[in-house]
């Protein structure tokens, strides 16, 4: 089975502009869906498996997931320079726009159309997040243990309302232990 050819790594400026464009054209959640589409599906700079591994790491680390993901993708593609470019590209341009928009929004907040537009943008963000969740769920191995861990995490958080911190800590430990043991057995 041959592996598909992957295009050469992006230049620093290409990477910066991709992150900047994603950051400036996204609103609310769903950025991981845009990152997947851009880096895996459109540009093929990484595989879906690499992306989902990075997403898992990014979500496990403290801080903003999309910032963690941008740093990880940047590092994966261009080393320490890419990590810095990913961070700056995903954070700085939107921060500037947010300050400018705040001035405009404060003067428009009294109009009902403003709230309608924000509701529509939020719905689009939910759709992108759902798309990313479905993509990730499809990539989960169809083994009993990962499915039990996934279902158990859902039940614990969504139905039983257990504290997210403890559920993630326990489920994360069990997942890592399972992957470690499975990896050792497969060797």
Largest sheet: none
Give the % helix. Answer: over 70%
Compute the average pLDDT: 87
Based on the structure, what is the oligomeric state of the protein chains? single chain
Give me the Rg, rounded.
19 Å
pLDDT under 50 segments (min length 5)?
Answer: none
**What is the succession of H and E elements?**
HHHHHHH
Q: Outline, from the CA principal axes? A: globular
Distance between the termini: 19 Å
Describe this structure in words.
There is one protein chain. The protein is mostly helical. The protein has 2 domains: 1-139, no CATH class; 141-187. The protein has 7 helices and no strands. Helix 1 (12-25) packs antiparallel against helix 2 (31-42) and helix 6 packs antiparallel against helix 7 (164-186). It is globular, with a radius of gyration of 19 Å. The protein starts with 11 loop residues before the first helix and ends with a helix. The mean pLDDT is 87. It is found in: Cell membrane. It is a multi-pass membrane protein. It holds the Pfam family Chromate_transp.
Keywords summarizing the entry:
187 residues, mainly alpha, 2 domains, 80% helix, globular
Please write out the topology.
Elements lengths: L11 H14 L5 H12 L5 H13 L4 H44 L3 H28 L4 H16 L4 H23 L1
Helix pairs in contact: 1-2, 1-4, 2-5, 3-4, 6-7
What is the compact description of this entry?
This protein has 187 residues and is mainly α. 80% of the residues lie in helices and 0% in strands.
């Amino acid at each position: 089975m041959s592996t598909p050819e992957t295009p050469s790594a992006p230049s620093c400026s290409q990477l910066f502009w991709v992150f900047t464009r994603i950051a400036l054209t996204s609103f609310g959640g769903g950025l991981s869906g845009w990152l997947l589409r851009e880096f895996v599906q459109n540009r093929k700079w990484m595989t879906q498996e690499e992306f989902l591994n990075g997403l898992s790491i990014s979500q496990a680390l403290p801080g903003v997931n999309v910032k963690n993901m941008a740093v990880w993708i940047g590092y994966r593609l261009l080393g320490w320079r890419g990590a810095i470019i990913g961070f700056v590209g995903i954070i700085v341009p939107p921060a500037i726009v947010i300050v400018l928009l705040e001035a405009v929004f404060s003067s428009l907040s009294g109009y009902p159309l403003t709230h309608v537009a924000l509701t529509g943008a939020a719905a689009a963000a939910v759709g992108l997040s759902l798309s990313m969740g479905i993509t990730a769920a499809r990539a989960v191995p169809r083994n009993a243990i990962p499915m039990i861990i996934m279902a158990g995490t859902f039940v614990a958080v969504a139905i039983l309302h257990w504290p997210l911190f403890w559920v993630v800590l326990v489920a994360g430990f069990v997942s890592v232990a399972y992957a470690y043991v499975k990896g050792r057995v497969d060797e």
